[in-house]
Amino acid sequence: MTAITLTDVVKTYPPRERGGAPLTAVDGVSLSIAEGEIFGIIGYSGAGKSTLVRLVNALERTTSGSITLDGREITGLRERDLRGVRAGIGMIFQQFNLFSSKTVWGNVEFPLKAAGVPVAEHQRRISELLHFVGLADKAHVRPDQLSGGQKQRVGIARALATSPRLLLADEATSALDPETTQEVLALLRRVNRELGITIVVITHEMDVIKSIADRVAVMDRGRVVETGPTFEVFANPREDSTKRFVSTVVSGAPAGDELAGLRRRHDGTLVTVRLSEGGVDQRQVFGLLTRHEVSFEIVFGGIDEIRGRTFGTLTLALSGDPASVRAAVAELGDAATEIEEA
Ligand code: ADP
User: Fold this and answer.
1) pLDDT at position 63
2) Is 198 helix (H, G, I), strand (E, B) or coil?
3) Which amino acid residue places its CA nearest to atom 17 of ligand 1?
4) pLDDT of 245 over the 80 cut
5) Domains of the chain, earliest start first
6) Which atom of ligand 1 is nearest to the CA of 50?
7) Closest of 248, 217, 243, 216 to residue 230, by C-alpha
8) Which of 13, 16, 52, 94 to mutate for ligand 1's pocket (most ligand atoms within 8 Å of CB)?
9) What is the Cα–Cα distance from 53 to 202, expressed in whole angstroms?
10) Atom of ligand 1 nearest to the CA of 202
């Protein structure tokens, strides 16, 4: 069952000034997000991610195209019906958006009141949620006494209060340090696994996608340029914009100044070898070079892993008998790219 289906969704904003051009923030996006998955949407700032989220939670209307949630078409619904749609979606934000004058308890209670949940049920529900996010001892504290990670955990408890089936996280860890980010992501993983809630994570941070998303869509200038299982998109990016993202977390092939520097320091043959499952692994590369009696030095690159599956690139400076070097490079085949002389 699909949780969210977007078909040719377009959102165009009118010109900001008279005589200006309209701006198409979301430009023909089609996506299908399955129930129970953690789906990542990544892209640079301005790519259209937040606009897409506002269309999914019906805070804004599409210019054209269709959006269905749990099989129900939401484009074209009346405002009254949209309120019901929004009630089934939890949201968490970069700046947490907590009420600073309310306690943790009061913040989590707010959506229960708004949804008309009988007061008699509040106590049990709130205490259950605060236990789940590990903040049972902070119930009577105000947000300004909490760390960023704790604030986001309150945000998560509040988002879950009305038992949504879908949670949208818009840059939810972007204001947090790396360690706290991982804690919050671990909590989101529990929300997904233990409560079975579908999660859509919007971020410009590749590390977030890498640690949590089952599948990912890469957005660039309003379009989805690439989509697939996270490992595939990282290990085998097809589009230039995806390659740029990937190179920010895994050092890929050397370029520009890096390459010029390597050239200066190493004479002989430089090759970049792509390591991936189904392709060659490090053992094979080093075994093959040894067999050809080619000596090597690793001069650039990096290896990364997503859930136990490794991928990456290594740039090697090869030396030895020129014929042996040529034979070794030939045997590496498609996995290796020789870096030509500048
Ligand atoms: P992201 O979340 O990926 O940073 P946004 O969805 O916020 O991207 O923005 C996509 C584009 O749409 C940007 O060029 C932004 O300036 C524009 N945009 C977003 N909201 C509005 C709006 N309400 N009116 C006009 N332009 C907007």
Assistant:
1) 96
2) strand
3) 25
4) no
5) 2-247 (3.40.50.300), 256-338 (3.30.70.260)
6) 2
7) 216
8) 13
9) 8
10) 2
Task: Name the residue with tokens 């129970």.
Answer: 36
- Please answer whether residues 60 and 11 qualify as being in contact, where contact means their C-beta atoms are separated by less than 8 angstroms: yes
Ligand 1, atom 26, residue with closest C-alpha: 13
Q: What is the pLDDT of residues 119-170, one digit of tens each?
A: 999 999 999 999 999 999 999 999 999 999 999 999 999 999 999 999 999 9
- Residues 252-264, mean pLDDT to the nearest whole number: 83
Percent of the chain's residues with pLDDT above 90: 68
Residues 102 and 155: their CA atoms lie apart, in Å, by: 13
Full-model pTM:
0.86
Q: Are strands 198-203 and 38-42 parallel, antiparallel or unpaired?
A: parallel
Examine the pLDDT at 341 and tell me if it is beyond 70: no
59 in contact with ligand 1, CB cutoff 6 A = no
Q: Which of 31, 21, 39, 42 lies closest to 220 in space, CA to CA?
A: 42
What the block records as the tokens of 334 is 């498609």
Residue position matching structure tokens 């050092």: 251
Q: Would you call 290 helix, strand, or coil by DSSP?
A: helix
340: alpha, beta or left? (left if phi > 0; alpha if psi -120 to 50): beta
Residue 32's pLDDT band (cuts 50, 70, 90)? very high
Give the nearest ligand 1 atom to 16 CA: 25
Determine the length of the chain: 342
